[in-house]
Design goal:
The protein is of the alpha+beta class. The chain contains three helices and eight strands; from the N terminus they run E-H-E-H-E-E-E-H-E-E-E. It has an eight-stranded mixed beta barrel.
Length: 121
Amino acid sequence: MTKIFETTVTKIGPDAQNMIDEANMFILFGDGAPDDLADYCFTHNCRKVAGDIHPGGYLVIDDEEYLITAVGSVVSKNLSTLGHITVALDGSTEVTLPGTLHIQVTVPPVIQQGSVIQIYE
């Protein structure tokens, strides 16, 4: 597998974990998320994406691997320009929104300040 993205969570909005628990998704945003969105985001420190993200790759959170099942048309672009994507924990093979990455999970991820998030192709 080839690593195409790696970042570290630097800040957690007060409602970010609720998004995992209640909406079955989480939001990543690079430093500088708009105030009205920052409360719902896991803020991170990297926008370098070394390739396109495709279904069949893996999102890895602190060594826990999740299969990528669908990738919105602007996921790679938004991640590299804004550090922003929505990650849906539904395992869908159909994209719901252009900025959404879908992953297959059995147990929702635990994301903490300092968590390392990687994407492999």
